[in-house]
Amino acid sequence: MTTSRPPETLARVGLFRSLTPDEITRLNARCIFRRAHAKDWIIDYQDESTDVFFLISGSARVMIRAISGRETILREIDGGAFFGEFSAIDGRPRSASILAVTDVTIAKMSAAVFLETVTQHADVCLQLLRLITGQVRMLSNRVNEFTTLAIRERLIMELLRLSRANPADPEQAIVSPPPLHADLAGRISTRRETVTKELSAMEREGLVRRGRRALTLVDMPRLMGAIRAAEEAEDFGAASKLK
């Protein structure tokens, strides 16, 4: 039995949704398509290359590795997205590393072709600006969480982001498949052992329930209340410093 491979075309990339099929075909010819295996590093932090990469299929992860060896996960990238645009725009070294989470198909485009495409097509330029703005907002929120919330509240925030509503119970949410403790630690900039300890405590308190197929957020009102209480405490502390 043979399986068909996903088509190697930029038509799957949302950034180019306004381009005609002929324009996509011409862009395809100016890219190099290749595959990478899960756990392969596609881009290294501080690498001086300036190419832009488009994820045709699979998933990847944006990460920063500190001198201490601790890894922080900034965001996940799925098929149809792209990365590497910062270096293409300003010519500076890479600001993060990119790890293939699954086997991926990617298209590599030179900085010159990328900038030419962006400047020649108004909708592509607008989409790029909106995506970069969204990344800046996301990173600002993450910095705020890292500097104002304790480990437990950061963990709750990440679980809320990963969850979906439980149709059988409006007070519950589900994270499926259950995330690895190491991945959660990377997302909230802490150690795997700390995540394990916090999840065990939250399970004893009836806040979460762990299973093989899913992690259930059992009591959403209490979890949301913990976040609000932490934010209110931070606001009160900030106001007190101003007096």
Topology overview:
Elements: H1 21-29, E1 32-36, E2 41-43, E3 52-57, E4 59-65, E5 71-78, E6 82-83, H2 85-90, E7 97-100, E8 104-109, H3 111-120, H4 122-148, H5 151-162, E9 164-165, E10 173-175, H6 181-188, H7 192-204, E11 208-210, E12 215-217, H8 220-242
Antiparallel strand pairs: 1-8, 2-7, 3-6, 3-8, 4-5, 4-7, 9-10, 10-12, 11-12
* Total count of strands: 12
Percent helix among the residues?
A: 40-55%
Q: Can you tell me the number of structural domains?
A: 2
Structural class: alpha+beta
Estimated radius of gyration:
21 Å
Using the coordinates above, name the CATH class of the largest domain: Mainly Beta
The end-to-end span amounts to 73 Å
Order of neighbouring strands in the sheet with most strands:
1-8-3-6
Q: Helical element count?
A: 8
Order of helices and strands: HEEEEEEHEEHHHEEHHEEH
Overall, the morphology is elongated
The CATH topology assignment of the largest domain is Jelly Rolls
What features would you describe in this structure?
The chain folds into two domains: 14-146, Sandwich (Jelly Rolls), CATH 2.60.120; 149-241, Winged helix-like DNA-binding domain superfamily/Winged helix DNA-binding domain (Arc Repressor Mutant, subunit A, Orthogonal Bundle). It is built from eight helices and twelve strands. It has helices at residues 21-29, 85-90, 111-120, 122-148, 151-162, 181-188, 192-204, 220-242; strands at 32-36, 41-43, 52-57, 59-65, 71-78, 82-83, 97-100, 104-109, 164-165, 173-175, 208-210, 215-217. The strands form three sheets. It has a four-stranded antiparallel beta sheet with strand order 1-8-3-6. It is elongated, with a radius of gyration of 21 Å. The model has no long low-confidence stretch (mean pLDDT 90). One of its GO terms (cellular component) is cytosol. It comes from Methylocella silvestris (strain DSM 15510 / CIP 108128 / LMG 27833 / NCIMB 13906 / BL2). One of its GO terms (molecular function) is DNA-binding transcription factor activity.
